[in-house]
Amino acid sequence: MFRRPSLSLAEIIWRFTFGAAACVLLGLAALAYLDTLPVTRTDLVMLRTGHPVLVSRAIAHIFHGSALRVALVAAILYAALAILWILVASLGRAATLGELLSHIRQRAHLIRRQWNPGLLGDDTHTGADSTTHLRSLAALNFLRVALGLAACASCTGALILASFASTKTDPHPGLVFFLAAGILFLIWSLWSSLSWFLAAAPIFVVRDGKDALSALVATTALFRKRAGPVIAVGGWFGLTHLILLVGASTVVTFPLAFAGVVPPVLVLGAVVLLTLTYFALVDALYIGRLAGYVAILEAPPLPPPPPPLPIAPIQEPLTSAPELAIIDRTENILCDSSAPLDQQGAEPPNTPDPPEKPEIKNFPSEI
After folding, report:
1. What is the largest CA-CA distance in the chain?
2. Quick check: 208 and 198 in contact, CB under 8 A?
């Protein structure tokens, strides 16, 4: 993210391209849908009055019977966005992952040369050419689109199923809420888990030239063998994403606080700018997370530990106990007397005898 900001910029560009096209398609679909709604003169008069009751009745009359049109517009729009996502995401992922693999392999090769200066050659090539694995990337993105459609249908079914727990005669809104929340959380957990495998599988497509199914198998093997590093990378980047979401939600409220002071156009522009900044940072985090997964695969093995230092033998003292035993301590050189040498052999001067101890007599046992 910081050494090669061009990769983050490329990720932001292709995702923003899809987002802009999706916004244009949504706007055109909304206009096409509104053109199909019948609006009578009575409805216009009721709308112009501004009375809440009359306006609500006019809106209800306009949208009455338009559910089929909503379903048709949603189906056409989803199909168009799905095709656009498959095309743009395949091209964008092939471009970013190729450069990402090359960069990380170069750094890994430099580390290997630092550990082994005699190493020659360069292993920075990718597994296959970008034109050969676009089909596999398109297949993976198609699976992601199908998974998203299945998740949306499951959420709708969960809401309908939870509503059966409450009736008009015996309402249980709390039970409906907890059932719907639990089922939706289960669907979200399953969707996010499967989506992770589909999002990480392109690494093996670009790295090893695998097809879609083989890339999914390789991704599963990576998670099984290196679960700790993979979870660590996903967890830290997920935590950073959460912090960004909380920060952006807090910062975006500041322009709204000045809605009554500054013109609404400036407030709306500030909100849009902050939202786009948040999305750009999230896209940069996504490329950083992919770099973490690639680094797990391409990281060189740790160098062998250095050999232990030889232990120096313990030197014995110059004089040992047997040698001390054979030394004649009566030699003058070893004498510790402070008297001159000519007086050391003389007898010591006469000293008075110590007083005798008094004799203790044995008293009779009767006493």
Report:
1. 151
2. no
Of 346, 103, 340, 318, the residue nearest 206 (C-alpha): 103
Selection from 293, 278, 292 nearest residue 245 by Cα: 278
Nearest to 204 by CA among 217, 220, 212, 215: 215
Per-residue model confidence (pLDDT) at position 366 = 46
Distance from C-alpha of 314 to C-alpha of 312, rounded to nearest angstrom: 6
Confidence (pTM): 0.71
CB 204 within 8 A of CB 293: no
Residue with tokens 């998670």: 223
Residue spans of alpha helices (H) in the chain: 5-35, 41-49, 52-63, 67-115, 134-163, 173-200, 202-208, 212-225, 227-251, 253-257, 264-298, 321-325
Tell me how far apart the alpha carbons of residues 186 and 151 are, in angstroms, rounded to a whole number.
11
Q: Please list, in sequence order, all residues whose beta carbon lies within 8 angstroms of the beta carbon of residue 148, skipping any fewer than 6 positions away.
A: 191
Q: Which two tokens stand for residue 294?
A: 């690639």
CA distance 148 to 212: 18
Q: What is the DSSP letter of 335?
A: -
Mention every residue, 6+ apart, whose C-beta is less than 8 A from residue 23.
Answer: none
Quick one: pLDDT at residue 21? 92
119: Cβ–Cβ under 8 A, 6 or more apart, which residues?
112, 113
CB atoms within 10 A of CB 43: 19
Residues 89-118 have pLDDT tens digits of 999 898 888 888 888 888 877 777 776 666
Say if residues 49 and 55 touch (Cβ distance below 8 Å).
Answer: yes
One-letter amino acid at 296 equals: I
DSSP class of residue 332 equals G
Give φ, ψ of 153 to 5 degrees.
-65, -35
Structure tokens at 347: 């007898």
What are the structural domain ranges in the chain?
1-125, 129-224, 226-301
Q: Name the residue with higher pLDDT: 132 or 241.
A: 241
- Region of poorest pLDDT, from 33-37, 269-273, 297-301: 297-301
- Count of residues in the chain: 367
- Output the pLDDT for position 344: 47
